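Discussion board: Methods & Data

I've been asked by a reviewer to show the raw model output for two of the constructs in my manuscript, not just the figures. I'm not sure how much to include, so I'm pasting the format here to get opinions. Each protein appears as its amino acid sequence followed by a line of discrete structure tokens. Is this the kind of thing reviewers expect to see in a supplement, or should I convert it first? Here is construct A:
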Amino acid sequence: MVEAVDTPEEAIAAANRTLYGLTSSILAGNTYRAFEMAPKVLAGIVNVNSPTVNDEIHAPMGACRQRLGTTGPRSLEDFSDLIWINSHSGQRQYPF
């Protein structure tokens, strides 16, 4: 889903309106501001200037809201909310 917003606060509210929260991305010209926003997004993984595809498959993923469970090395901590924040600068290689 793509939704146009005017402020960072509106962007966070739009991202948090969904019932799902496995992975998300913040694409921003100001990386510092995006890192300030990332912990406010209710998702198991928040990518900063990086797509939601081609994630680190070995990294733990803690689902939020309509919890589906977790994957990765700490799967037994299913009742913890783990937030993984990724950042990438430069050219990104996509798997397709």
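Construct B, same format:
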Amino acid sequence: MRRVLAILQHHRDANDRLHPGLFGRILRVAEDYDTLARRSGKLSPTLALAAMLKWAGTRYDPVILQLLINALGAYPPGTLLKLEDGRVVRSAAPARSPETFATPLARCLRLADGSPAPDDLPLVDLSGKGPLHLLRPLS
């Protein structure tokens, strides 16, 4: 019964007078993040979360949205970043701890000279790598 209610309620806004249940609110946040960050191809995962944050408390349950942000980190998996040394990387892991919220592990896609990175390179820990520059998603 909870599954059916969640499916029926997940398009309701968090502040709707017919307040959706917990599972419906969770599904709303998860489905909208997936649609914005992955299916549309127009927003990076970071920008998708930023867009959703504008609607916290109205469309989305603010606590559930904040839990998602805390779990994914400042640069959720899939986010394209350019490092100070010119390398292009894709965030490969969610936040590991509060201390590493803004410095994920990433897979190198392009070396500093612009050439494709070999597939066998280990993940790069972005801690102490200088400022990170958010790149537009690939369309």
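Answer (T.O., handling editor elsewhere):
This is acceptable in a supplement if you add a one-line summary per construct. For B, something like: Strands lie at 80-82, 88-91, 105-110, 124-125, 133-134.
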